[in-house]
Specification:
The chain has 218 residues and is α+β, with helices and mostly antiparallel strands. Strand 7 and strand 8 form a beta hairpin. The longest helix has 18 residues. The protein contains five helices and eight strands; from the N terminus they run ββαααββαββββα.
Amino acid sequence: MTHDPKVRPMVSDSPDGTVLTSMPGHTPVDRATAAARRVVDALLRTDRANANLDRVAEELDNIADHLEQHAPAVAERLVDMWHGEGVTRHDPVTGPENALAPPLVLSGRADGSVEGVVSLTIPYQGPPGHVHGGVSAQLLDHTLGVANAWSGRTGATAQLNVRYHRPTPLFVPLIVSGRMVSQDGRKVCSAGEIRTAEGDLCVSVDALFIDKPALRRR
């Protein structure tokens, strides 16, 4: 995961810190994306025998056809997502315009750490009633990238060491946090964790990032 501090959006200040990632709003695209999240969640929960899924599929295909008719070229869209619109509006962790994202909103603290609270539902399930381990790793990878940017560094993930302490529950508030621990030339070391609101440690991670100028010099 990479994150550039030059495009770090400081959306607002709050008593808890500076909001670093884009918050879901009431724009048409944000509302449409939120509706898409509801559809995904509902499809996983629906009674497959009685929900008239043939009609649902037809309506969803019509919606997809409409959206694709108004979509620019993929290459053009990829550039737009990284320049001028703010990367955190589109990524699969914090992006309010990405239906794959919960989305997680992260705030920066005075001590250099970042933190956010998120509740994950059935689309993120691994073991029954609990979060998929890969989803936990994705949340922490992205959170550490934001933490590095908050501390003034940027880079790509080179190594992610994840430890699962206990199953991470669905449907409850989870506190996701991260911080930059040290830096040595091109190397940036970071750490993070996911806890329940009661303080139970579910997942922890130590990671190594390589800064972007170093990547360009290779």
